Amino acid sequence: MEYSSHDFDVIVVGAGIMGSSTAYQLAKRGQKTLLLEQFDFLHHRGSSHGESRTVRATYPEDHYCDMVMESSQSWEQAQSEIGYKVYFKAQQFDMGPSDNKSLLAVISSCEKKSLPYQVLHGQQVADRFSGRITVPESWVGVLTEVGGVIKPTKAVSMFQALAFQKGAVLRDNMEVKNIVKDEVRGGVNVVVADGEKFWGKKCVVTAGAWMSKIKEGHEAKFAIGSDFPTFASYGEPYIYGTPSLEFPGLIKIAVHGGYPCDPDKRPWGPGISLDSMKEWIEGRFSGLVDHGEPVVTQLCMYSMTPDGDFVIDFLGGEFGKDVVIGGGFSGHGFKMAPVVGRILADLVLSGEAEGVELRHYRIQRFQENPKGNVKDYEDQVNTFPNQK
């Protein structure tokens, strides 16, 4: 087929981590690919920026473990192609009350997926981490080898560079105003704000919606490359974090939660109250991490679904299988971007994806049950009242 400069095999709308990974997957399969972004590339207005994201295969839901394991290998493959690192390995340590349903489901999932793990109790936790992490006697910890830190902005840049190297066309500051079915040629027409129009046989839409100070003398003990892990704490509040990497002497500790916002009118000032997090830091790190005010804070926008699971599906309707959507990654999808990109590329090219149960991610589930997938454990994302 002959193409004009505005005709493509696949148009990808949204150049965050998911869209950029998808464009890379498509371009390396020889597809003429266009990647469109409404803002500047590598902007800080969405969910794909910042200094770190964690990697963990420990999920209450069984179906995420395989995706993380595949993505872990794919991160290494992509960074070998580009020639620099975006993925820094570490162990993963999950902790919480011994009767916490989510944590118990994590252990069950590890068993089902044959993911090696070790359960640690009270003093065993302090011994394993040389006193850097302590937990109450009523808590347990789960230690696994599949953890680590990803550099988000660098990772997005990596996938965009690889896509470009393999022939993809990248255009930023191109706000998509409409996607319409082409009744004559088939495929879809994608219209941007200035009136420019692009045609694609297929289209993928991925347009989706912090740090504490280590006390002097102990910095190396909390750095990536030591035996200090990425971590998550179940219960209230749900907290996760990473070892020191980009900023010497600082570790990232984050509350997995927030409040509803309009992505075009989001606040940039202080987020939720940090009192519960400060109390958590004081109780977990044996006084080695300053639990006063954070040195740096950064808000990240989540695109939430009611059940916290992704949406990966065909748009359907008049578009049939010509438009595939990926969204609702709910604050935990970044680590799985390589496999999400692979799945979206599979769907748009062949209509099916290998090695993944897409029933968990169908749009239709919300029509069957407004809350989506039914789960027998607590929400991990805490939703707070709207901020004014």
TrEMBL record:
InterPro entries: FAD-dep_OxRdtase, FAD/NAD-bd_sf, MTOX. It comes from Salix viminalis (Common osier). GO terms for molecular function: flavin adenine dinucleotide binding; sarcosine oxidase activity. This is PEROXISOMAL SARCOSINE OXIDASE. Residues 9-347 form the FAD dependent oxidoreductase domain. It comes from the Eukaryota. The keyword Lipoprotein does not apply. Keywords: FAD, Flavoprotein, Oxidoreductase. Belongs to the MSOX/MTOX family.
